[in-house]
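The passage that follows is intended for readers who have already worked through the single-chain material. We present the inputs for a multi-component assembly, then the predicted structure in tokenized form, and finally a short commentary. You are encouraged to pause after the input and sketch how you expect the pieces to fit together before reading on.
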Amino acid sequence: MNGYLASLEAESVEIIREAVALSDKPVMMYSIGKDSSVMLHLARKAFWPAVPPLPLLHIDTTWKFREMISFRDRISAETGIKLLVHTNQQRLAQGVNPFTYDSERYTTMMKTEALRQALDAWGFDIILAGARRDEEKSRAKERIFSFRSAGHRWDPKIQRPELWNLYNARIHPGETIRVFPLSNWTEADVWQYLAEENIPIVQLYFAAARPVVRRSGQWIMVDDDRFPLNPGETPEMRVVRFRTLGCYPLTAAMESTASTVSEIAREVQTAKNSERQGRLIDFDQVASMERKKQEGYF
Amino acid sequence: MRDALHFVTCGSVDDGKSTLIGRLLWESKQIFEDQLSALAKDSTRYGTQGEAMDLALLVDGLQAEREQGITIDVAYRFFTTQRRRFVVADTPGHEQYTRNMATGASTSDLAVLVADASKGLQSQSYRHARIVAMLGIRHLVMAVNKMDLVNWDETVFDEITREFRQGVSGLGFGSFQAIPVSALHGDNITQGSSAAPWYTGPSLLTCLEEIDVNCSAAELGFRMPVQWVNRPSQDFRGYCGRVASGQVKVGDRVRIVPGGTESKVRSIVAWKEERLTALAGDSITICLEEKIDVTRGNVIASASDPAQLSDQFEATLLCLSQHHLFAGRSYIFNLHTCQAVATITAIKYQVDVRLGTRLATRSFGLNDIGVVNLSLDRPVPFEAYNRCRRLGSFILVDRLENQTVGAGMIDFALRRAANTHWQASEINKSARARQKLQKPVCLWLTGLPGSGKSTIANLLEKRMFAAGRHTYVLDGDNVRHGLNRDLGFSQADRVENIRRVTEVSRLLVDAGLVVIVAFISPYRAERETARSHFEAGEFLEIFVDTPLDECERRDPKGLYAKARRGELINFTGIDSEYQSPMSPEVRLDTVAHSAEECVDRILLALEQSSLHVLQRNEEQNDRS
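Having made your guess, compare it with the prediction:
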């Protein structure tokens, strides 16, 4: 492994061990994406030969790609790490979905609200997540150990100073700390690491012929028959892949023929757009990520 | 490719730091098209450059920052060129955000200080240079920005460079490079500039690509703070941590600090395979030959050159909190993986960060830097900060609010720690208590002036004395006539006042007495510290809860009247704060109850508390 990746790995392993050592009840968010895959791999390294002493938590909106769910269950079984899944059942019963609700309200209810419910119900005090500082402007301002007041709110104006590798995880009951072990990784680092460590990821990242429709200038995959097609609209088969993974109706595919991790790594290095471009939820308004984060989103 | 360069940008507000970073990202092609279209949108809305792109908006990520056109918090950016990888901490210039600047500097090896050619050097420029020097940064690059505004005048550049070089000459920078630039137009950022033919040095990017920041100081032997003990089964016991210095090989003899036990490295476990050796910066798991007791916070060190151990230090401290740091107050102390309670025993001096001179002070406010003595409740493994950042840096955390209030660097251990030992006397506290047929306890009465503390304390002592108890009352006014006659009523003096009384009451409890303390003791932090000096059940906080208007109505000594007339300053309740207890053992309502009834309640609470302690002791005995 090259020197830079090795030092990123060593730093992340240190952060994961600190988080677990300082926590009474830690949990690791698992979104099934490439960053989650890297974080899980690092956690396994951090505690090897033991199984990581914390469960994974997946917030299932019920609108994830089918391949993601089967991949999730396989990884949990293979690694022996406990998997918790939570869905916002009230909103599901109300019929909340990504088609008739706008993406902002849908995300608030099925992701942010669901996440808060799960964290409260299980009472986790330290929550590890795979967000990176290079993803988005407000994330660049995030601490590695990020304090959340009761109610899971992030206040960017009163973040705890974080010097050296010293993390203040002291909290009062009801407060939590979110920990981001991949803070200093870039998208290119993630791909390079996935390649070097031979880490399994969902096939959706690799180019293949998939049924898609054109919506607002983006390719959206028709993953199941819940997708309401417009009159006259028929899915066409195109060779596409996904740069990030989320809810399938809100995640745009890109035309690409990259079908191995190293081909993707090369593609990422010459990319013209940022990876979050495929995330329809980020364009709701200026500083929308900052606002979502304040409400408790990652 | 070379190792990554971690650098921090600093300088006064509006000197153009964010624009400079934006320009570096832009010129090194790190901006994606969708980010660019967002930038175009933001520029029209929040930009300060008219119709042109405002590159600062690329890095000012928070809504509040864009609205105010300033940087509030440190932002981390990553970019790569053909020759090197960079991690940039972009930090705010406003004085009130100096702590964020220190945060960015703490993980950097080089600082880029931005100065505004059109305005000249600001006091913030010197302030930042001194802070980065204190944090151990040895390489400084000064970008003299906005050269276009002074028509690329060489004399302006020379004057600023000369003045600055003089100002920072004593700070110990190993290298210093000044570069004339225009971040707005891109001159001398990644390439040379035709606007300044007189400048023959490197562009900013070339300078950053080429500089060697590896320190030449002789490295310490192997040290690894233990983060986690990994015990998945009976036959595996590994110590996890990140190597702070030196290297370790299988078969090396190591010593555990503290404790001093020695053993040999049996194996170094990484992912699924074993390694023969590990270096500083590696995260590893070590297994030892012998089964010995090692816990989180211990340091595994080379046996021939082990880590130092001490419980008293001289340290350089930066105050990160709006609440002042005082001598006498205690804080949670985090050093590598180790946690202790530290008391600031003396504030030696404050550093004037503009001039570098020493100032006398009793406390540190937000962004103040100075030198203090610290005393810990137990010895911890450490190294001086200038020898090893990882083993010499610490933070102080407020015990009640949990905020990070200070960041410090250990200068050296104080000799007294090694040379004085607590004298263990053969007649101990329980022997003295048995002789007096009582359980020693500290009854701590707190409340506003005139709330009735002294009255209740005296009555309480009479009742206990009559019942055959051995008692002593420490009264605020009385102690100020003797032991504490040198102290006034400033916040710093009040902290010291309570610290001394805490120590005296602890000695008296050790002597087997029932101690009744009647002090205003206005601050939660000191009352919590006092509590922490006693064993469980030995300290009862009693809140004499009389409302301010009632105290003022009673005014037994006429002090409220004086304070209202302005003849007394720093009077608790009037112009000095009283922090009510959150969860006292006893709360006395002196309006609804007489002093006698209040004493009854204290005696009842005391009885229940000793029963409680007895029961707990019995439960513990049952378990063991």
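Commentary: Helices of chain A lie at 3-21, 34-47, 66-79, 89-93, 103-122, 187-197, 261-269, 288-295. The beta strands of chain A are 26-29, 56-59, 83-86, 126-128, 145-148, 176-179, 208-215, 218-221, 236-241, 252-255. How closely did your sketch match?
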